[in-house]
Amino acid sequence: MVETERLICASEDLQERGTGIGFSLPDAGKTQQSGFVIRYDGKVHGYVNRCAHVPVTLDWQEGDFFDLSRHFLICSTHGAQYLPETGRCVLGPCKGKSLQKLNVVERDGRIYLIETTPVESHL
Ligand code: FES
């Protein structure tokens, strides 16, 4: 496996429990997917932007992933609520399921997506 880092945004662009930042994910041969990052309790978390209930994006308004309490991520379609730290659904039609977590890292004032790709054998 080869790991590569892709710059998503500057740290200052991602405010505590504020608007999330979306980005495209590599086409896995099926539908085009997107991801997003949010900041919660100071830490950055990244997820695939797809509800665990029905494969739709979570944010009706772009970047609007938090509920009104700013303690949960919420799907704007049917209201599933997810823990920001783990992506686990705690309320709604997909309770017990989880968002797909992405590997993100914050370093030197920037936030990166860590992408892993298989190494092709040339034997
Ligand atoms: S589509 Fe997200 S809660 Fe149903």
Task: List the defining traits of the structure above.
Rieske_2Fe-2S; metal-binding; binds FE2/S2 (inorganic) cluster; four-stranded antiparallel β-sheet; iron-sulfur; Rieske Iron-sulfur Protein; mainly beta; 123 residues; three-stranded antiparallel β-sheet; single chain
Element order: H for helix, E for strand = EEEEEEEEEE
CATH top level label: Mainly Beta
**Structural domain tally:** 1
Amino-to-carboxy terminus distance? 16 Å
Biggest beta sheet attributes = 4 strands, antiparallel
Report low-confidence residues grouped into runs of 5 or more. none
Number of strands: 10
Strand order of the largest sheet: 2-3-4-8
Our count of helices gives 0
Q: Please tell me the CATH architecture by its name.
A: 3-layer Sandwich
Overall pLDDT, averaged? 94
Task: Summarize the structure in words.
The chain has 123 residues and is an all-beta fold. It has a single domain, classed as Rieske Iron-sulfur Protein (3-layer Sandwich), CATH 2.102.10. Helices cover 0% and strands 38% of the residues. It has no helices and 10 strands. It has strands at 2-10, 21-24, 34-40, 43-48, 73-74, 81-82, 89-91, 101-102, 104-107, 110-117. The strands form 3 sheets. It has a 4-stranded antiparallel β-sheet, with no helix packed on it. It has a 3-stranded antiparallel β-sheet with strand order 1-10-9, with no helix packed on it. Strand 9 (104-107) and strand 10 (110-117) form a beta hairpin. It binds FE2/S2 (inorganic) cluster. FE2/S2 (inorganic) cluster binds next to loops.
